[in-house]
Design a protein that fits this description.
Blueprint lengths: L11 E4 L6 H6 L5 E5 L2 H5 L4 H9 L3 E5 L8 H12 L5 E6 L1 H11 L8 H6 L9 E6 L11 E6 L4 E6 L7 E4 L9 H19 L6 H23 L4 H20 L4 H11 L5 H16 L4 H11 L9 H18 L16 H9 L2 H4 L8 H11 L1
Parallel strand pairs: 1-8, 2-3, 2-4, 4-5, 5-8
Antiparallel strand pairs: 6-7
Helix pairs in contact: 4-5, 7-8, 7-9, 7-11, 8-9, 10-11, 10-14, 11-13, 11-16, 12-13, 14-16
This protein binds nicotinamide-adenine-dinucleotide (NAD) and zinc ion.
């Protein structure tokens, strides 16, 4: 475990049945011109009306950028930011999943257009917040509302990369289960597994520490007991609220620790083959955790004890780790996520490219307790083809 670590969190976080109502008091008398960052899917889901009502009640004038793309490239993000700058806003409200929140974060640190997104790719330390952000996640999720990270694709390199700077951490976060009530099951499942991956990777990371452990374990407990119902049942608002809380906790765990080889090896699946982030992680999750098992026995056993009742504490560490992996397998099966690369058009002939791209994500591979060699990466990809 790391001996030096730090924890940075969003300014204020609201969670609960009526978390959205806090919008009124956040903006009232403090801001005049708000811009909502969102996308067409969210607009179609009919979940913008309520936040708009509260913002209007809070007395701000509103403009809406509703054409944000999913899994944005750096240039797509730049185009949105160029339009945003002409709007002269004094507060940003991101209502959406990770894609929307990440673009909103970038817009808040580019100094009203003084910096371009491509400048920040090269020199992330230049990020400087010039406008505050309110994040309302509509997937549960990436945890982007908690992290200093923003992920964009670089088309010419067929890669996804993270820009990381503490100024990108949200000023206000509103976690309200109603925002994910119409989330289609497929998206709820893959984004839920993304949160699960964040939590278990951060807990078993070389960068794990007391802060990240606290949030990762709580996230795992919430996810294990809520993910299935939250995805299956449209009316399970309590479980959906718990999933939002869990993905936020897992995001905090990322800020304090870091993800590992699951995320590292899943990046090329998004960057080159455009598999959505959550699905890409669901594909790599079990093979990587099984590979890591001999090096993470203690951690897996602790997770098992933490998320289950104490009567099973008599099992050996190895048995607990095995049971944890079995339970994960069961969750993935119940959520019906397609975890074979072949179904996304990837074949054995793509292996070399995948291995090359995966090995380049050194930033995360170095967090993995068990070294991932080129041969191991190849074997892991081969398992899911
Ligand atoms: N910054 C971070 O810390 C971080 C962490 C993980 C992932 N990411 C990034 O986040 C992006 C993925 O975000 P995501 O998985 O949340 O998906 P997303 O934001 O790309 O959304 C996926 C789809 O779901 C729809 N949708 C979202 N909420 C909905 C709702 N409530 N009802 C109906 N439809 C809804 C959207 O319209 C979109 O079509 C990727 O680019 C990934 O790399 C960022
Ligand atoms: Zn993720």
């Amino acid at each position: 475990m790391n001996s030096n670590y730090e924890l940075r969190m969003p300014g204020v976080v609201y969670h609960g049945e009526n978390a959205l109502e806090s919008l009124v008091s956040i903006v009232q008398g403090k801001y005049n011109r708000a811009v909502i960052f969102t996308d067409k899917g969210i607009e179609k889901a009919g979940i913008l009306e309520e936040p708009i009502r509260y913002l209007t009640q809070g007395g701000v004038s509103l403009e809406i950028l509703n054409e944000l793309p999913s899994e944005p490239t750096c240039d797509q993000a730049q185009k949105i930011i160029d339009r945003f700058i002409t709007m002269k806003a004094d507060i940003i409200i991101a209502i959406g999943g990770g894609s929307v929140m990440d673009i909103a974060k970038l817009a808040s640190v580019t100094g009203n257009g003084a910096l371009k997104v491509r400048d920040l790719l090269k020199s992330p330390h230049l990020c400087k917040k010039t406008i505050k952000t309110i994040m309302i996640p509509t997937t549960a999720g990436t945890g982007s509302e908690a992290t200093p990270n923003c992920i964009v694709a670089i088309p010419e390199k067929e890669l996804k990369v993270g820009i990381v700077h503490t100024d990108m951490i949200a000023d206000f976060v509103l976690l309200d289960g109603r925002m994910i009530r119409n989330l289609p099951k497929k998206i709820a499942a893959s984004t839920g597994v993304d949160a699960l991956a964040h939590a278990i990777e951060c807990y078993t990371s070389n960068k794990a520490n007391s802060f990240s452990d606290l949030f990762a374990l709580e996230a795992l407990k919430l996810i294990f007991s809520n993910i299935e119902k939250a995805c299956e049942d449209v009316n399970a608002i309590k479980e959906k609220g718990n999933m939002l809380l869990a993905s936020f906790y897992a995001g905090v765990a990322i800020s304090a620790s870091g993800t590992t080889a699951v995320h590292a090896l899943s990046y090329p699946l998004g960057g080159k083959y455009h598999i959505p982030h959550g699905i890409a992680n669901a594909i790599m999750l079990l093979p990587v955790l099984k590979y890591n098992k001999p090096y993470c026995l203690e951690e897996f056993a602790t997770v098992y004890d933490f998320v289950h009742s104490p009567e099973v504490q008599l099992l050996s560490k190895d048995e607990k780790a095995e049971k944890l992996l079995k339970r994960l397998e069961e969750i993935l099966h119940k959520l019906s996520i397609e975890t074979s690369l072949r179904s996304y058009g990837i074949k054995e002939s793509d292996l070399d490219t995948l291995v090359q791209a995966g090995m380049e994500v050194e930033r995360l591979l170095m967090n993995n307790k068990r070294e991932v060699t080129r041969e191991a990466a190849r074997e892991l990809y081969l398992q899911v083809i």
